[in-house]
Amino acid sequence: MKSRSLSAYAFAYLAFLYVPVLVLPVFSFNDSQFIAFPLSGFTTRWYAGLAADTAMLHALGNSLKVGLITSLLSTLLGLTAAKAVTHYRLRGTGPALAFISLPLFIPDIVLGISLLLLLGAVGLPLSLAAVVMGHLLVCVPFALTVLIARFEGFDKNLEEASADLGENGWMTFWRVTFPLMLPGITASLLLTFITSFDEFLVAYFLSGTEATLPIYIWGQLRFPERLPMVLALGAIILTVSVALVVLAEYVRNLGVKKPMVGA
Amino acid sequence: MSYLAITNVRKSFGGTLAVDNVSLQVPRGEFFALLGPSGCGKTTLLRMIAGFETPDSGTIAIDGEVMNAVPPHLRPTNMVFQSYAIFPHLNVFDNIAYGLRKLKLPKDALRAKVEAMLATVRLEGLGGRAADQLSGGQRQRVALARALVREPKILLLDEPLGALDKRLREAMQLELRAIQRKVGITFMLVTHDQEEALSLSDRVAVMEGGRILQVASPRTLYERPESRAVADFIGEINFFHATVKSMAGETATVNAGVLGIITLPFANLAPGIKPDDHILLAIRPEHVRFSSQGVAGEIVTSTFLGERSHFHIRIPGRGETVAVSGAAPPTGALHLVFPPENLFALPVT
Asked: What is the complex's ipTM, to 2 decimals?
């Protein structure tokens, strides 16, 4: 009795979570401008229309650029910070970590407005570079969390063993640290890329005339006849995002082994 | 000249002195052990030889070259880590070949060298095995092979057998000794296990509180410890308070309270003992004998251990019991004899 009501609850909850999301792909294949049941037939013309939309492609290009640069930079910053935090006992580690993670808890709209004001105050133009800076604030905490977790399972003796066997710091990094950190690094790259790619508020404030994809989509919502195309775009982003997150999780768990201690 | 020369080395961590003015000479080809309880500074000393820690003062020289400023990757030492530190992303072959990259050997020569080392540590045919598919004993062998293949001037072993179970540990002790004889490399072993240190090494340094208490062969350490701490740390021992009455010729006469007046050969006195000194007389349990006369006593506990038994005997006028090891005593009144040739005198502190 109890377990049946419990599974009903779980089912309802999952439906609540995912039915709205599934509406996107369903209507993106529907042969009608209006988002309403009953469905009126199967079509791929919305997808075909997307491919010909140069403004959309330009925004997509911007988003890819911003996402790529953000993910590389935030992973690099996260990697060095994570190594410092986990390898050395440094004074002020706790507060430093707290401050780095703080942007996670500041509403993006507040972050966006403050950055906008700051850029204006120092006279920097709104641009994709500004968006990258804003996204770094949001992405570094993610990178740091993923990478610290990975470093914590890392036997410091391995780096000493490498030095003992004749390799300097640089070669030790390439032969030991990097290969062992690779799953963490890949996961961090994917997560930060997705975070940046999907981010709207900060980008909206800072991008100026160069729209990123979310901003472009937001703009399209004013034109009802373009809505199915937006749905098609949304369906694609959804699919790719889910695929990347699943990939990131898979890679992150790849090769996570028990620490190599004794017998 | 000694091969490894440690001179007045000091090292402290945040105000705590870990190694306190240690000097040590180790000749080439010796199997040397640093023995002491955890926290005695033995691992710090080992890590300074490897270059992972820098001495605050003093010098460490290997084969005549001062090493203080040489980073670990350029030192002629290799280490077997306590955790073994096998690279988890490499297989056995690549782990062993790791330190040979700079030799730039042709592929065949590299293979031959690694295979030969695999044979030395008896891991033939396991080169392709992944690191996480090795047993504890196999990991230990890989760590040993990886270090030995570089033909270091000194091989450093940090509690190498600590992670193994008792039977495997005993087997590996024999093998370690055999490998050392075969390769002829100077071994420096750190251990808290006195049995391991005594059975493996040519010489042992007993450490406590960052200092070296005594450096000697295992036999000398056991039979002629120079201090109470060393005597206590190595094996079981009985102490009796005594006073030196006189020293003449080749002997010393001491008043040993419950044991009476005893005359000892000079060789049984630790250096520096003078007449009228308050001393400790020490004797190992296996040297105390049961007899029909001597010091009267009664058995408090008796433990059967196979070829011998272990007893705690209470004697009048002494709070602690006397530990005795040997064959079961004859029935009837029990007396203990403390042969003077097996009694040795130590300073009280």
From this structure: 0.82
